[in-house]
Amino acid sequence: KTPAETEETPASGKSATTTTNKRKQVKLAEDADEVLEECRRLRKALSKKKSSSSSGNSIGGQSTETSDVPQSIVEVSEQSSDEVMEGMEKIALRVAKQILAKKGFQLNIPSRSASNQIYVKEWDRIVLGDKRSSRSFLNVKESRKSAITMRVLQLLHTVLGKRIHITKRDLFYTDVKLFVDQSESDGVLDDVATMIGCTRSNLHVVASDKGLVVGRISFTEDGDFIDCTKMGVGGKAIPPYIDKIENIRSDAEFVLLVEKEAAYMRMAEDRFYHRYPCIVITAKGQPDVATRMFLSRLTSELKIPVLGLVDSDPYGLKILSVYMSGSKNMSYDSASLTTPDIKWLGLRPSDLNRYDLPEQCRLDMTDNDIKTGKELMREDFIQKNPEWMKELEIMVKTKKKAEIQALSSFGFQYITEEYLPRKLREGDW
């Protein structure tokens, strides 16, 4: 027998017919144009808004013509490794001169205290004010922190010189006796970034992978071509090295930003992104720096709307706020970490009645939940959006919350086959 004939006849004599788990091909939905009509209208409106705001003086790509925008703030920018190293060397030189003058040494660092965090309504994000604090080695209370700062500067200079990346955990373990706790070395990283005026990613210290992306997007990552429609069911891990991503290409109509990994996996397995061309992203809860930066870059380059799918509780809305307005810990880098105009697609408090969610799927809010909800209602980014205020009022009044997975009570694929298409068709965000 020939090799081909041998392969066709199993040794057991049984039929050669085998079953495979080859995935079913998913095509563009027949009603895609109808469902995506409102989304396309939103995309055009956002493009006009961005183009109109691009004229005039700007900081971080946003206009400063409005009188309410503070003129003196600390904003960092992208820098090359050589530029960052030069900044470190200048700090070391100033310190050396102070020591030679027998004055000890003192570091001048932008203050990241709560009182120096400013929410700019026109930009819809938090920025860092111009207040500064000093860190003196001769001060008993500040000497250890000063030593940690200089040690971190030394280690980062070595990392940049080698042109490699390390994790925050790697940094901590280089001098455990001095740092004692990782929070000490982590905090100093942000101080170093503000002192030099570079983004934290420019320091080549990254956190572990957390975010995931799947759908109609491709790019090159450190020279390797990545097609996120062909990365298996789970999609692609969002790399911590966003600066190594280039040549982003996409035919997606929108980005679907999902709070929970379980909901993300449902959309990934159902290939929802083929039926209604989109990009699906999750950070598995509280967003990490890499996912926030990746989302910001996508929307900046692709100019497509972002629709958020989070739990119907105060914490889901807080997660959206971090993506939109930034976090206080990294307000100095909010320009590259925030994505304005995210739409709250679901799960909203009004959806509980609108979609007749069963009573057993509606959870009672705790006292802490209600307190957090009321605090959110006083936040500037909520007050500027009347529709979000109405939703929060419903939540606090009914004292009910629900998870995205509650939609599975209507069927495991209800979210991809009924809920999301209806939401998109009605422009209900």
Name the descriptors.
429 residues, alpha+beta, six-stranded mixed sheet, 42% helix, 16% strand, globular
What form results from the Cα inertia axes? globular
The major sheet is characterized as: 6 strands, mixed
Instruction: Please tally the helical runs, counting DSSP H or I stretches of 4 or more residues.
Output: 18
What Rg, in angstroms, do the CA atoms define? 25 Å
Distance between the termini: 65 Å
Structural class: alpha+beta
State mean pLDDT (0 to 100 scale). 86
How many strand segments? Answer: 20
Helix content: 40-55%
Q: Uncertain regions: pLDDT < 50 for 5+ in a row?
A: 1-19, 55-61
Strands in their spatial order, largest beta sheet = 13-10-16-15-17-18
Summarize the structure in words.
The chain is of the alpha+beta class and 429 residues long. The protein contains 18 helices and 20 strands. The protein has helices spanning 3-8, 32-35, 37-53, 81-100, 143-162, 168-173, 176-179, 182-196, 261-269, 272-275, 289-302, 314-325, 334-337, 351-354, 367-376, 380-383, 386-398, 414-426, and strands at residues 58-59, 62-63, 73-74, 106-110, 117-120, 125-129, 132-136, 166-167, 205-206, 212-215, 218-221, 224-227, 236-237, 245-249, 254-258, 278-282, 306-309, 343-346, 363-364, 400-401. Strands 13-10-16-15-17-18 form a 6-stranded mixed beta sheet. α4 (81-100) runs antiparallel to α5 (143-162). The protein is globular and about 75 Å long. 35% of the residues are buried.
